[in-house]
Every structure is written in C-alpha cells, then in structure tokens.
Specification:
Radius of gyration: 18 Å
Oligomer: single chain
Strand content: 5-15%
Distance between the termini: 28 Å
Number of helices: 5
Strand order of the largest sheet: 1-3-2-4
Number of strands: 8
C-alpha cells in the first residue's frame, strides 16, 4: 500500500537521499475513511523534497502520504488512529475495517525490509553510508496569506542531530557553516541545528541495522 521509488543507480556513491514524507497519495482502500482535507494534509506533508532527492544518484522517494503510514515513526505509532496521533487533526471519518491497520503495518514492514536490504548491499562496498533524510516545514501555519512565523524560531534550513552519535556533530557543524549565509533567491540562508525538528525514527532503524550487520 505504500508507494515509493527506489532509485539506486550508483553503487560507488555512499550517499542516499531520502524523502519519506514527500508523498501526497492516499491508497484507494483508505479514501472512504479519510476526514482530513488534502489542503490540511499538505501542511504536514513535505512536498517537493522528492525533487531535491532526485538530484542525487541514489535516492528513495515515498509517494504515499504519511497519513497512510508514517515511515518516520516507530511501527506502533506509524498509523494515525486518533487525533492525538496527528497534532489534534481528525484524520478519519470512521474506523478502519479490522484488516486495514495490519495491512498498512505489513506494508511498513516490507518497505523497511527493502531499505535494509539496499543498505546492507551498499555496506558490502562502503565502510559507512551517508543518509540524507530530507524534510520540509510550513512557516505560514495560518495559511498562505498569513505573515510568516518569526525567523528566530524558523530558520531556512534545520539540521537535526538526534538520530546520530555525538562524535559526528563536528561534521554537521561543517555542513552548517557551508550552508549558512549562502545566497539563495536573493536572500542569505539561515542554517541552524536542532531547532524545532531534531530528527525522527532513523536512529532506531540505524541501530537495528548496525546490530544485524
């Protein structure tokens, strides 16, 4: 039920760009039970991150919405069942059939199994991999015509470090310095670490993958 594109064209490249919240598609089987509008979903999805990922030789772009199954959450919280699971939003108009959540979780498992296989394959070639987990966020939470949220709490680029060991923090700082102050669309980029979004489920996956290697 989870649709994604695995584009892994260059085994010599140790970088994989991921856009796991890029998608906007809701599986047809879920559509009769959805209460949330496409506009409200879009506020929490990460549109166009797939286009960024596509610039890399190795990329994985998810086309299904996180409102089907959220791949950036632990398995037990990947399917939004109640408003508290989705920032208070009412996602469903009625309960799913008893078979629906197991199907979504099975698709979640299959996706992670496919990812694990590809990572294991590349780790046979490289001593380590760089995983770029790409996300976006909405700085106009009150609507497209509302004023932007304060820059002090909403930098242009956020580098989240919660899913990596502290010994790698100096590398993140090198990346931050390289991005901060660069001119993009006639403005200088404001790049900071761990503001608002420090990271998601990837640390758990990477720890499991390392233990299995």
């Amino acid at each position: 039920m989870i649709q994604s594109k695995f584009k892994l064209m260059d085994s010599s490249d140790p970088v994989i760009a991921m856009a796991i919240h890029n998608g906007n598609k809701i599986p047809q089987a879920l559509q009769p039970y959805m209460a949330i509008s496409e506009e409200d979903r879009l506020r929490e999805e990460d549109p166009f991150t797939g286009k960024i990922a596509d610039h890399f030789s190795n990329s994985i772009v998810v086309e299904s919405s996180r409102f089907a199954a959220d791949l950036n959450r632990r398995r037990e919280s990947a399917v939004y069942l109640e408003p508290k699971d989705a920032w208070g939003l009412t996602v469903r108009s009625s309960d799913y059939p008893s078979t629906m959540t197991p199907l979504l979780l099975s698709s979640y498992d299959n996706w992670y199994n496919a990812l694990s296989y590809q990572i294991e394959r590349l780790l046979q070639i490289h001593p380590f991999l760089y995983i770029l987990d790409l996300h976006s966020y909405n700085h106009r939470r009150e609507g497209a015509d509302a004023p932007p949220d304060p820059q002090s709490e909403n930098p242009d680029i956020i580098l989240g470090r919660s899913n990596m060991p502290e010994e790698l923090y100096p590398l993140v700082e090198i990346l931050r310095q390289g991005l901060d102050g660069q001119v993009f669309m006639d403005s200088r980029l404001d790049c900071r670490v761990d503001v608002k979004f420090p990271g998601g489920n990837w640390r758990v996956f990477c720890m499991i993958n390392i233990q299995q290697s």
